[in-house]
């Protein structure tokens, strides 16, 4: 367990004892006093109890009522425990939590229960009512829990009168506090929990106030909007064992006085905007078991100094997203109680010491996102109990991705029997022969049951062994993309029937696609793109009824699209581009594919016409039929593509097969702005039609101008004739327009200059005539956009017209933008923001 609470453990035992009273009443047949009975009945009458939880509250002996405990000698009520028995994180939370909430008012009759020591109203819904002031008069109260109960307003300072109170929990409400001075009266307090209480207005020396509470053992002030953390000259709360001040905004140095709290067991100061050096004295705290300083960004320390000694009892050490630097010393092997070691996203350099083998209790080991170099230790220092059989019998998560590790994978990686996630991506591992060493031998990959395997973007070579399923039958996520793997993919891959993602893209695989992949019935994403697969697509892939993303592009596949694909009704992406497919585009593609966003058949040998049924693909955002042998007019029904009409699209990441933090992220390459651009993060905002490089003829359909949400339109290198429609100005989102190398004639419509998002225009090599309306957006384009039209004249061509050219107007911003910033402009301006945003960053541009 990561969270250790000494006093909380004692409370748990006490609560268990109290629960015996709650569920079964007192073991002795003690009768409560008439005075207490009347007070409880009045209290009940103020409550709303939709599930009749208080049905036992009848009769004259309230000591037998559910949730009530009495003193066995006097009969006085000492306990009221009405917390919701189905907390939000329970299995039944969706169905029972809301129904079992008590609500209503808390009547002042409670203050008549003068012997009351324990009051728990947590996890109910006393919506928008303040904490009753009269609770401050319950002088014998030792335990008060009002957490997650819907209270609002200011915490009454009268609670400071509860001098016997040992535990106070007012977390997870809608409360605020202006001053901590009232806490001075809680001289017996041991446990204080105020998570998510607004403390933004408390005095800057609030820590000094708490320092006056001598017996304080636990302090929980997470998410409290605290903005200061002053120093304390003399420590009084020497019993403090648990401190949670996470998710505040201190903007201050890490407090040195923490190192003087020798009773500390648990410290969480994560995400609190702390800076400066981490005190080395923390490692000398004799009882410290949990330390979380993650996500502060600016805490620094030398690993050599911080970890060289001490940390005798540390179990959880989370220092992710800071500025730790230097090498991990071999002394880390002395932290033999460690279960979690997380230094993600720091500046750690050097290698991983072999002494980590002594950390036999590790569950989570994360050094990803650093600057580690060298190879993983070939052998480990291990404890005598485990030897070399399995150095980390409890390890479930091993994250070493995004470093500069190289060399071969050591044998011990294949012996991690409980491993769930192995992250090695974005390193420089090399010389791995998967055909003979995938599971065993000198360079094995995991030879035990795991669920996630991501080795993408390394330099692995070799082929996949035929016995891949001998040890990986439970695999859910498999990514080997971006390596140098070769050979045939074994048919045994279909034995991993739990797979949701298979990504083998960007390798050198040859041969046929294994028909057995059709057995992976849970598959959501299959990416075999950019390899050397050949032959026909196996019809068995049509059995993958949950498949959402299919990429087979950039291979040497041939034949026709299998008719079994008509069963893939969940498809959102079908990418078959750059192969040798032939025949006509099948009619059945127009039936049942209501979720299809991307359809790419480019650079094949399809013949016939563009089918009119494409308009039935109501979710289609990207249509790429370029570079085929299509011979027809452009169907007017393309103007009915619903997802290319309308503005104000909302960006959403297209993620498939999400499992335990890993997922397949959709991406697609589009021919736009005279080159190929890869879209990932903003792909959902893109709308594109590319019919270039075919034998299309006839006139440009007027109906296409209804696509006012279309961003990219490419009809180049066809035989399209007639005039450019004056209504093209209705296509307000156009950012890239290519009509080059066709037979368009007549004048360039002046309305084209009003397309304010147009960043690329190519009308070259047509039969256009007249003066170029060189104004507005058109004034940003060069001669090349209009070349090869002998009848055109005026700027920017060097051919003067017989009459004066129109006013050039104001030059607008350069159109030489990257693909995603171009999408950003279209998106943000379309929802009314009056300037272009460039916040999503550059997507990869393909040469």
UniProtKB/TrEMBL annotation:
Residues 36-71 form the Leucine-rich repeat-containing N-terminal plant-type domain. It holds the Pfam family LRR_8. It is found in: Cell membrane. The keyword Glycoprotein applies. Residues 1-20 form the signal peptide. GO terms for cellular component: plasma membrane. It comes from the Eukaryota. Residues 109-296 form the Disease resistance R13L4/SHOC-2-like LRR domain. PROSITE patterns: LRR (PS51450). Gene3D superfamilies: Ribonuclease Inhibitor (3.80.10.10). InterPro entries: Leu-rich_rpt (IPR001611), Leu-rich_rpt_typical-subtyp (IPR003591), LRR_dom_sf (IPR032675), LRR_N_plant-typ (IPR013210), LRR_R13L4/SHOC2-like (IPR055414), RLP23-like (IPR046956). This is Leucine-rich repeat-containing N-terminal plant-type domain-containing protein.
């Amino acid at each position: 367990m990561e969270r250790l609470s000494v006093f909380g453990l004692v409370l748990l035992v006490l609560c268990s004892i109290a629960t015996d009273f709650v569920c079964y009443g007192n073991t002795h047949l003690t009768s409560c006093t008439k005075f207490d009975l009347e007070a409880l009945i009045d209290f009940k009458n103020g409550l709303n109890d939709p599930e009749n939880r208080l049905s036992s509250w009848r009769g004259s002996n309230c000591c037998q009522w559910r949730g009530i405990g009495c003193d066995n000698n006097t009969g006085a009520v000492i306990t009221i425990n009405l917390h919701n028995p189905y907390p939000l994180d329970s299995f039944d939370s969706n169905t029972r939590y809301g129904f079992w909430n008590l609500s209503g008012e808390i009547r002042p009759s409670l203050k008549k229960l003068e012997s009351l020591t324990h009051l728990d109203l947590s996890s109910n819904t006393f919506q928008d009512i303040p904490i009753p002031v009269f609770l401050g008069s319950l002088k014998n109260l030792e335990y008060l829990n009002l957490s997650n109960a819907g209270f609002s307003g200011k915490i009454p300072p009268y609670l400071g009168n509860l001098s016997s109170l040992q535990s106070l929990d007012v977390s997870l409400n809608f409360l605020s506090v202006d001053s901590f001075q009232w806490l001075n009266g809680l001289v017996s307090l041991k446990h204080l929990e105020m998570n998510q209480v607004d403390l933004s207005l408390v005095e800057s020396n609030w820590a000094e106030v708490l320092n006056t509470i001598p017996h304080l053992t636990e302090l929980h002030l997470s998410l409290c909007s605290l903005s200061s953390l002053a120093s304390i000259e003399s420590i009084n709360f020497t019993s403090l064992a648990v401190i949670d001040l996470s998710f505040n905004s201190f903007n201050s140095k890490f407090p040195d006085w923490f190192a003087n709290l020798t009773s500390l067991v648990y410290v969480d100061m994560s995400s609190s905007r702390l800076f400066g050096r981490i005190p080395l004295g923390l490692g000398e705290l004799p009882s410290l078991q949990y330390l979380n300083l993650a996500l502060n960004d600016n805490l620094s320390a030398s690993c050599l100094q911080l970890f060289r000694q001490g940390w005798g009892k540390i179990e959880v050490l989370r220092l992710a997203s800071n500025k730790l630097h230097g090498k991990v010393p071999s002394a880390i092997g002395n932290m033999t109680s460690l279960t979690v070691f997380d230094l993600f996203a720091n500046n750690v350099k050097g290698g991983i010491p072999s002494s980590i083998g002594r950390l036999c209790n590790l569950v989570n080991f994360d050094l990803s996102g650093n600057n580690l170099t060298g190879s993983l230790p070939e052998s480990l220092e291990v404890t005598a109990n485990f030897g070399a059989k399995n150095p980390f019998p409890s390890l479930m998560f091993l994250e070493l991705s995004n470093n500069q590790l190289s060399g071969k994978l050591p044998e011990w990686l294949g012996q991690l029997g409980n491993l769930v996630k192995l992250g090695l991506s974005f390193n420089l591992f090399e010389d791995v022969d998967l055909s003979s060493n995938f599971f065993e031998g000198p360079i094995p990959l995991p030879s035990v049951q795991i669920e996630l395997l991501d080795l993408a973007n390394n330099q692995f070579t070799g082929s996949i062994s035929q016995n891949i399923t001998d040890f990986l039958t439970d695999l859910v996520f498999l990514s080997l993309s971006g390596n140098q793997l070769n050979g045939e993919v074994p048919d045994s891959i279909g034995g991993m029937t739990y797979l949701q993602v298979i990504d083998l893209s960007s390798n050198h695989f040859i041969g046929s696609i294994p028909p057995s992949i059709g057995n992976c019935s849970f598959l959501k994403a299959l990416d075999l793109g950019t390899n050397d697969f050949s032959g026909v697509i196996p019809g068995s892939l049509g059995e993958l009824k949950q498949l959402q993303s299919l990429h087979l592009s950039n291979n040497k596949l041939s034949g026709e699209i299998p008719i079994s694909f008509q069963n893939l009704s969940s498809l959102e992406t079908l990418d078959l581009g750059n192969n040798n497919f032939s025949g006509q585009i099948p009619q059945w593609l127009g039936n049942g594919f209501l979720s299809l966003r991307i359809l790419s058949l480019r650079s094949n040998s399809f013949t016939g016409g563009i089918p009119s049924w494409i308009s039935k693909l109501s979710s289609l955002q990207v249509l790429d039929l370029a570079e085929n042998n299509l011979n027809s007019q452009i169907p007017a029904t393309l103007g009915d593509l619903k997802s290319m009409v309308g503005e104000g699209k909302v960006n959403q990441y297209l993620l498939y097969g999400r499992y335990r933090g890993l997922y397949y992220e959709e991406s697609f390459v589009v021919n736009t702005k005279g080159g190929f651009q890869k879209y990932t993060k903003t792909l959902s905002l893109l709308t594109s039609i590319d019919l270039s490089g075919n034998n299309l003829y006839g006139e440009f359909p007027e109906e296409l101008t209804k696509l006012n949400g279309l961003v990219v339109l490419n009809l180049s290198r066809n035989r399209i004739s007639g005039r450019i429609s004056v209504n093209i100005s209705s296509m307000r989102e156009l950012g890239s327009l290519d009509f080059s190398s066709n037979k368009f004639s007549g004048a360039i419509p002046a309305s084209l200059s009003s397309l304010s998002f147009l960043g690329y225009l190519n009308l070259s090599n047509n039969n256009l005539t007249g003066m170029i309306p060189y104004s507005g957006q058109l004034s940003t384009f060069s001669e090349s956009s209009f070349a090869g039209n002998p009848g055109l004249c005026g700027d920017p061509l060097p051919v003067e017209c017989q009459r004066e050219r129109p006013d050039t107007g104001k030059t607008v911003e350069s159109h030489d933008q990257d693909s995603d910033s171009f999408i950003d402009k279209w998106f943000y301006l379309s929802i009314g923001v009056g300037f272009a945003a460039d916040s999503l960053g550059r997507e990869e541009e393909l040469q």
